[in-house]
Amino acid sequence: MKKEDVLHLEKLMNFLSLHFLKKNHWEDVSKTEWSYIVAELNDLIINDHQQKGIKKEPDLLGSNYLYEHLIINKLKKYYQNENAVLSKPNLAKLSLIVKSLGYSNYIEFINSNTESFNFNDLRINMDNVKQNTDLLDKLVGCWYSYNRNLPDNPLQAKEDRIWRSATEIYKSETSGEYFIERSGGDRHKYFGKVTAYSDYVSSS
């Protein structure tokens, strides 16, 4: 594994620890808690298969896969000795994990989480307020333009401006959560969860 591969894997493990346990770093998660996360991921994988009507038994993660294969044999080994020779983790397994969370594959997850700023810092916690899922359901499937560039020919009408980026809101079939995705160049991509309280929409 190259250092870049290790950093990508570390992002995944930090993402899982924050998503399921509200812990910011993988080192704060115990072996038992990693088993809990595996069970949650397997439930999402099973639900996805059932919703899609797939008869074939789903590939599931072993109860100690995250802790033994990824934490002990990859991350901890690397940080104990940066020159240690480490084999790359199974890409199919990593894609299975992120697919259960609404991503299309592991590469998309890495590309969607390259920002140095943690968007989870923007999250507004309103535990005692009912979510406005009716509003989100109305927004699902709609796309919105962030900006348009003038055409190469300045004589063209304003309506002929070139679309540069767009935002789409959609609902995850596996978790039932709402997500927002912005397309565009590498510096303009954004992916995050969407929550609505009353008439307010918050993304993180």
Structural account:
With about 200 residues, the chain is an alpha+beta fold. It is built from 6 helices and 5 strands; from the N terminus they run H-H-H-H-H-H-E-E-E-E-E. The chain has helices at about 5-20, 30-50, 65-80, 90-100, 105-110, 135-140, and strands at about 145-150, 160-170, 180, 190-195, 200-204. It has a 5-stranded antiparallel β-sheet. Helices cover about 40% and strands about 15% of the residues. The model is unreliable at about 115-125 (pLDDT under 50).
Q: What keywords describe this structure?
A:
204 residues; five-stranded antiparallel sheet; 5 strands; 39% helix
User: In order across it, which strands form the biggest sheet?
Assistant: 1-2-3-4-5
Count of individual helical segments = 6
What would you report as the Rg, rounded to the nearest angstrom? 20 Å
Strands, count = 5
Structural class designation: alpha+beta
The H-and-E topology, N to C, reads as HHHHHHEEEEE
Percent of residues in helices comes to 25-40%
Mean pLDDT: 78
Distance between the termini: 31 Å
Shape: globular
